[in-house]
Each structure stands twice: as structure tokens, then as C-alpha cells.
Write a structure and sequence with these properties.
This protein has 16 helices and twelve strands. The protein is an alpha+beta fold and 468 residues long. The chain is globular and about 85 Å long. 33% of the residues are buried.
Length: 468
């Protein structure tokens, strides 16, 4: 579809500008900046990529790739406030005053050599069990009773000294070198290379500072964040909210003056079969056990819920900071953590940053991701989506909304052609623009223009055939 500055995108950018101005008056956008951001977002919606050349081809001359690139890299825009301003706009549009923060990490595959892509490192592929080179991100999503949307992100980069030490240590360990003869573990530079837990705490701190009127009911995260330090600090930052994560089955807990791991503790009794409401919708049969136990690694008592869905053999162990909740409420709350996975899947498919996002340098990565998340926020401002969600009806997925934006773009373009002073000339220009927008690719299937070699017998070698 064509890249057109449709009224919905223009209204979104104007609202974003007003939100920016309310945060800090000096950060408002200029007319040129608003036009550039409008075209970039329209380009991502139309092409599902962050590709300047594709934007130029599909814009009917309205977008010059060089100008869009200049605005992206050189315009004096307060990029770090753009996402905050957009979040503020959505909170106001939907009247949100409370919600649940959910954190999760994901990776973006890159090529093996990425000298101009910041933060690229070796990442474990959860699907295959292997490794790939790429960038790693931590997202934070706000889940409310009406709408779910991203509120912040951070890029994660491990300390290269620690990575090199682990690689060498594993190598020496396989060779049978004693621990005392292997190199000592280096001190991690947490200030320069913060952990994922530290990055998530920083996002929670930023959100609660920017939006003090939004009450955080809970913070949800997977087992990576199930440390005592993270749970305690997150609870303090959110004013005592319920923090729910997971513990590994080998975690040591105390019971009746003895210590054992979680798996052994809950194996002593049979689980209770019940039905659990998942994300406010369908019920699923589960087996549950729960106990308020002192967790050794945390140095305090936690509420541990052993949960097993139908068809599963092993329990997963949820851990909660607030002991006053019911175990069924904790399990039901933790089912909301899956929504961050849904967001990441939609974002990778439709957000543009995950496809052809070869914007170099720190600016390219961070600003490209901000623009991508603004597109996700824009979809929530579509009138049909607002009407559905505010009336407690199921909302439309990202792909469905993008199709509506594309149809809106086509309708407005046709209106311009029909209402033009010279419709025939406008139609001719429109047809030419559509033809120019079509890419030309080289097919490897057809052999025209290639030397396929000699495909016939050689007279001097006929005796070989006769002899056979």
C-alpha cells in the first residue's frame, strides 16, 4: 500500500506533540519534525519495515528518503521523551489509573559480523537450543482491565570480560584443569553492563516516577527475575505491590526445622485438582499446592504456589512477595504474564523494527525501536479499537488494525484523485506512483542470460557409449 499521512496518523502525532509539551514545554515538535514522524510511521504501517527507500517508492513523492533519514538521525527531537509522551496519551485516552507491569526479554537475530550494530552478542536460541549473534532487549508492558501496551524497553549487553572468562573456564573445565589453577572470575562492571534485573528495576523506577497517579497492583516476570533482591526492590518501587515470579525446583526452603528443595517438599503430598480461570477467559484444569515457606536464597518467607496444568508432569513454582493473597489469586494473576509474549510476537511481525532494521549505531537501534513502539500505540488510537475496548468488547489484533489503516490510506488517496482540479492528471500520477512502488527483483529460477554449458554428446567420445 501507499505511504500517506492519513488523518489518524496526523492526529496521533499532534496529540503526541501536546503530550510532549505538557511534560516539558521546550520539547514540542516543529512542523517539519511532525511531518517527518508522520511519514515514517505511515511508512512502517504500509511496509512493516524501517526502510527509507521503500518509504520513498510508496509515498507518491511525498517522502524523500534522504529527508526522512536526516530527521531520524539529526533532528533535535527529545527521543527519550517520545515514548513517555505516547504512554501518557494512551493513559489519558483510556482513563487508565491502575494496572500490572509485566517484564520479559527477547532477542533479534543479526548476521555473524555486526561491527556497526551496538550490543550484538551471542544469544541462546530457545527454539533450537543453539546460539546466534544478535541484540537482546527487555520490554515492560502495562496490562490493565481495558488495554495492554508497551511502556518501556532497554537493550541488554553482557560484560565482554565475563563472557570471555566463562568461555575459557568451560574450556579448561572440560580439559580437567582444577578450579584453583583456572583464572579467577573477573569483577563485573554493573554500572556499564547492568543485568536484566537491574534494567527492569530501572524501567519500574522510571514509570512510577513519570506516572505517580497510576497504581501498580503487581509486577510479573519469569524465573530469571525470581531473586530476593529483585522482588524486594520492585516491591519498594511500586509502593508494596505484589511481585510474582518463579523459583527453580532446586531452591532450598525450610520446613519444621529441616531444609529441602521445592521439588522434594511438594512431592510429600498430593496436589489438589481444580479449575483455574486463565486471563479472565476460559477455565483450565490444574493441580495446585501452596505454602508460605522461608526461602533460603531470599532470606525471608515467601508464598510459594506449585502449579501444574493438565498434561504436564512437573510442577512450576510461583513465588509471591505478599503473603496476604490467596494462592488461587496469585496463580490467576500470573497467567497475565503470557500477554507480554503476545505483544512481542505482534511487534516482531508488524512493528517494522524486526524486519530490515539495519539502522546503524546506538541512535539507529534505539530510535528505530521507539518509532516501532509508537506504531503499536497508534493502533490503539484507531476509533474502532477504542470503541471496542471502552465497551468491554474483545479488541482487534495488530494485523487487523494495520489492514484498516491501509484501507484508510487508499480511501483518502482516491478522494484526493476524485476531488482534484484535474482528475485525469491526478489519476495518471496516481497510477505512475503505484507502478513505481512495485519493486524489481531478480529471479534465480529462470536461466535467461546464463551459460548453462554444453548439453549434448561429444562425437569424439561416441566409442565410450558403444563400448558400454
Amino acid at each position: 500500500m501507499l505511504v500517506r499521512p492519513v488523518s489518524l496518523i496526523t492526529d496521533f502525532i499532534n496529540g503526541l506533540n501536546r503530550s510532549l509539551e505538557s511534560i516539558k514545554a521546550s520539547t514540542k515538535l516543529t512542523t517539519r519534525q511532525k511531518t517527518g514522524l508522520t511519514l515514517i510511521i505511515a511508512g512502517i504501517i504500509a511496509t512493516e519495515t524501517l526502510n527509507w527507500a521503500a518509504f520513498g517508492r510508496r509515498s507518491m513523492g511525498a517522502a524523500q528518503p534522504s529527508q526522512l533519514r536526516w530527521i531520524f538521525y539529526n533532528a533535535k527531537i527529545k527521543w527519550h521523551l517520545l515514548l513517555q509522551a505516547s504512554v501518557k496519551q494512551i493513559l489519558s485516552s483510556y482513563g487508565v489509573n491502575s494496572g500490572v507491569l509485566v517484564a520479559d526479554d527477547t532477542g533479534k537475530k543479526r548476521t555473524k559480523r555486526t561491527s556497526r550494530i551496538p550490543g550484538a552478542h551471542k544469544i541462546k536460541d530457545k527454539a533450537t537450543g543453539g546460539y546466534y549473534n544478535g541484540q537482546e532487549l527487555v520490554f515492560m508492558v502495562l496490562v490493565t482491565d481495558t488495554v495492554t501496551f508497551p511502556v518501556d524497553f532497554r537493550f541488554y549487553t553482557p560484560d565482554p570480560k565475563m563472557t570471555a572468562w566463562r568461555k575459557e573456564n568451560r574450556k579448561l573445565k572440560k580439559l580437567g584443569v582444577p578450579a584453583r589453577e583456572r583464572p579467577a572470575q573477573p569483577t563485573v562492571n554493573h554500572a556499564r553492563y547492568p543485568t536484566m534485573q537491574a534494567l527492569t528495576l530501572d524501567m519500574i523506577r522510571s514509570f512510577t516516577s513519570a506516572f505517580p497517579d497510576v497504581r501498580i497492583k503487581s509486577v510479573l516476570a519469569d524465573a530469571l527475575y525470581g531473586t530476593g533482591e529483585f522482588m524486594d526492590q520492585a516491591s519498594v518501587l511500586t509502593g508494596g505491590a505484589q511481585i510474582v515470579s518463579q523459583l527453580r525446583s532446586t531452591q532450598i526452603v525450610s520446613s519444621r526445622h529441616s531444609s529441602t528443595n521445592l521439588k522434594a517438599y511438594f512431592a510429600q503430598q498430593s496436589g489438589v485438582e481444580t479449575r483455574l480461570i486463565i486471563r479472565g477467559g476460559q477455565e483450565k484444569p490444574v493441580t495446585m499446592l501452596a505454602a508460605r515457606l522461608p526461602v533460603k536464597a531470599h532470606g525471608k518467607r515467601r508464598f510459594v504456589v506449585a502449579l501444574k496444568y493438565s498434561g504436564e508432569d512437573e510442577y512450576r513454582y510461583l513465588v509471591a512477595s505478599d503473603l496476604s493473597w490467596r494462592h488461587t489469586d496469585i496463580a490467576r494473576l500470573y497467567s497475565l504474564r503470557w500477554l507480554v509474549e503476545v505483544f512481542i510476537q505482534d511487534w516482531k511481525k508488524c512493528g517494522g523494527w524486526n524486519k530490515l532494521s539495519k539502522q546503524q549505531g546506538v541512535k539507529g537501534s534505539e530510535r528505530g525501536l521507539i518509532i516501532s513502539l509508537l506504531c503499536d500505540h497508534l493502533l490503539l488510537q484507531h476509533p474502532e479499537q477504542i470503541a471496542l475496548l471502552k465497551n468491554k468488547q474483545p479488541g482487534m489484533p495488530a494485523g487487523c488494525l494495520i489492514e484498516r489503516f491501509r484501507v484508510d490510506s487508499l480511501i483518502e488517496t482516491v478522494k484526493e484523485v476524485v476531488m482534484a482540479d484535474h482528475p485525469e492528471s491526478a489519476l495518471r500520477h496516481f497510477c505512475e506512483s503505484l507502478q513505481n512502488a512495485l519493486p524489481t527483483r531478480i529471479s534465480s529460477k529462470h536461466m535467461a542470460g546464463r551459460d548453462l554449458g554444453r548439453q549434448e554428446s561429444t562425437p569424439g567420445l561416441e566409442y565410450c557409449a558403444n563400448a558400454a
